[in-house]
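Sequence and structure are no longer studied apart. To make this concrete, we show below a single chain and its fold as tokens.
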Amino acid sequence: MQVLTSLLALIVVARLLGHLFVRMRQPAVAGEMLAGVLLGPAVLGFVQPTEALAGVSALAIFLVILSAGLEMSFRDVITAMRGRGMWIALLGFLVPFAGGAAVAQAFGLDTMRTIFLGLCVAITALPVAVKILDDLGLLNTAIARYAISTAVLNDVVALFVLGIVLGLPAESTWAEIVSTSSVAMVKLAGLIALVVALNVGLLWLDRHGVNVAALPERLVAAFGTEALFGVVVVFVLVFGSFTEALGFHFVIGAFFGALLLDRRHFLPERFDDLKHTLGSVTNGFLAPVFFASLGLEFTFDALLGKPGFVVAVLALSVLTKVAAGWWGGLLVGMSHREALGLGCVLNGRGVMELVVASIAYERGFIDQGLFSVLVLMGIVTTLLTPVMFNALVTAGQRATYIETGRLP
């Protein structure tokens, strides 16, 4: 099938199923991935994975990461590292990672597949968590504050670990990982030091009365409002190219570059226009294609050959996240129901987990069988998150919680 016909089919079906899932109060990403499963070799065989679609997906990954970075700032990351929320963030990453690694070892996976399975199980996707909390009307609650700070820190740590692992060969022993990761850590630390230095410099300019937002305004005056989007993309691409030169995936630099683009560096209306333009291109076109293309790689054969492994991964991915959120919630003084609600929200993976899984598959670190399991895990956990929370907390209890700050 011609690439344009494939794109047309993916966009139309992904958008339709995504909209249908939203109407059912489920994240659109689950419907978009299901579109790829239905159109791909697993069911209808109407669309096949091709290099052209892989190129479109690479651009989509870049813009998805850029969108995620714009949702955060260095202030968000630093805030997530302070106070009692650090306990939840650490438990929310380490407990699921350990659970995923334990399952991998129990089923005889090699070192690299163990790391990536643990990493994907440990992630909480910030966009998914924010969307679910917004749909539930809980964005101004303690659950939301702890869930978002945990998602921020989990995503940053996951990308940090990803940057180290991508510098390793596909087949590595633990000894090789220890010996070679030191070099990768030095390179990645240099990149982070550069980003931190630039952020400190921008803060210094702000404190000394320099209007940083004047530069984007001059660009808009000279080249028009549409030029701002292009300049932002080029700015983030520079960071992505720099990380590729260091031997990492471009997504690492794209994320850290996007972190520098804080709302305070733009006029409010310019920043809103930028996010609107990026959202139109990403959510309206490229992101559905990317998530649907992940579904194209899904095969039922890979799951049917090892049902015990699939069940173990799905069960541990849900149980470890909920348990970590409940444990961390109790440590910061939440009630049992509130802490369990936090654990349910942390269970949403979606975007970031699938980006990491697709990069690992593209680089040959995991095979199609494990990739299919990770895609299934992303779909199932994303769907289960609002279902579990609604089963735990009724609409009336949510209203009381929003009003009083206490969950009955």
User: Anything to note?
Assistant: The mean pLDDT is 78. The radius of gyration is 21 Å. Residues 174-207 form the longest helix (34 residues).
